Automatic annotation (TrEMBL):
Presence of keyword Transmembrane: yes
Protein name: Uncharacterized protein
Keywords for this protein: Membrane, Transmembrane, Transmembrane helix
Annotated transmembrane regions: 12-32
Source organism phylogeny: Eukaryota, Metazoa, Spiralia, Gnathifera, Rotifera
Species: Rotaria sordida
Length: 70
């Protein structure tokens, strides 16, 4: 095997390695973005749940106060 064949083989493997690395980086970036979106959704969902619970508790308290007054 001469030097030219070795160089070609090396560059083929190098190109394959670069392609695999770029593919992994793109995959990781997509997963990171998905996790960020999920966290944003989870946090906003928690806020909505807290607001709903507080509203229900306020309504319940108001109803109890009104029923004891009457």
């Amino acid at each position: 095997m001469n030097n030219s064949d070795r160089n070609k083989k090396f560059y083929v493997y190098l190109n394959i390695l670069i392609c695999i690395t770029l593919t992994i980086l793109v995959f990781v970036a997509i997963q990171y973005h998905s996790i960020q979106n999920f966290q944003h959704l989870f946090i906003s969902n928690q806020l909505i749940n807290k607001t709903t619970i507080i509203t229900k508790l306020n309504n319940l308290s108001t109803n109890q106060i009104n029923s004891t007054i009457q």
